[in-house]
């Protein structure tokens, strides 16, 4: 079920997003690609640096790397997509990109603990996956989370992630981010 995919080039990243990203996004009103582009755009609008913009663009790449299908959560399955993406990109991008990607699910669990209104604002699909991902953090987990490198960046990414589900929103296209990702690639 889980593939140990490795991504070898910037071209491969963009091909994956362009071809696989047209799939429906887990009960949300946008595709994976639309969602990724909106997340990157929101981070950019809020003054996020290049690493965080790249993280936002690539944070759900893991959904395009497993074969469990769009309804995995409905079947009670956590695909650990955040780990899949970070592992696939791990040799080529810095921790400032990989850590927020890896932590964006933990960030949701943190915000559910830290902000009483946060859970109420989540989409139904996000609430469904939350249960599979471990539910809200405990106080001890939240304290430990904040000490992790790039935890604050992961929280910023998470807020963009949650907002990036707007049907029909016009944002810059995928190609607008090619040079940015290439500048971080090694
Ligand atoms: Fe997302």
Brief overview, please?
With about 190 residues, the protein is mainly alpha-helical.
Question: How would the blueprint of this fold be written?
Answer:
Elements: H1 10-20, H2 32-45, H3 50-58, H4 81-89, H5 95-114, H6 118-121, H7 124-132, H8 139-146, H9 151-163, H10 178-184
Helix pairs in contact: 2-3, 2-9, 3-5, 3-9, 4-5, 5-8, 5-9
The chain binds fe (ii) ion.
Description:
The structure is a single chain. By secondary structure, the protein is mainly alpha-helical. The chain has one domain: Hypothetical protein af1432 (Orthogonal Bundle). Helix content is 56%, strand content 0%. The protein is built from 10 helices and no strands. Helix 2 packs across helix 9 and helix 5 runs antiparallel to helix 8. The longest helix is centred in the middle third of the chain and has 20 residues. It is globular and about 40 Å long. The protein starts with 9 loop residues before the first helix and ends with a helix. Fe (ii) ion binds next to loops.
Name its key features.
186 residues, mainly alpha, Hypothetical protein af1432, globular, binds fe (ii) ion
- Name of the CATH homologous superfamily: Hypothetical protein af1432
- Give the CATH level 1 class: Mainly Alpha
User: How do the helices and strands follow one another from N- to C-terminus?
Assistant: HHHHHHHHHH
Into which percentage range does the β-strand content fall? under 5%
Q: In terms of structural class, how would the helical and strand content be classed?
A: mainly alpha
Mean pLDDT: 92
The largest sheet, given as strand count, sense and whether it forms a barrel, is: none
Shape: globular
Which regions contain 5 or more consecutive residues with pLDDT less than 50?
none
The CATH architecture assignment turns out to be Orthogonal Bundle
Write out the distinct hetero groups bound to the structure.
fe (ii) ion
Using the coordinates shown, work out and report the CATH topology: Hypothetical protein af1432
Q: Can you give the helix content as a percent range?
A: 55-70%
Which value, in Å, is the CA radius of gyration?
A: 15 Å
List how many beta strands DSSP finds.
0
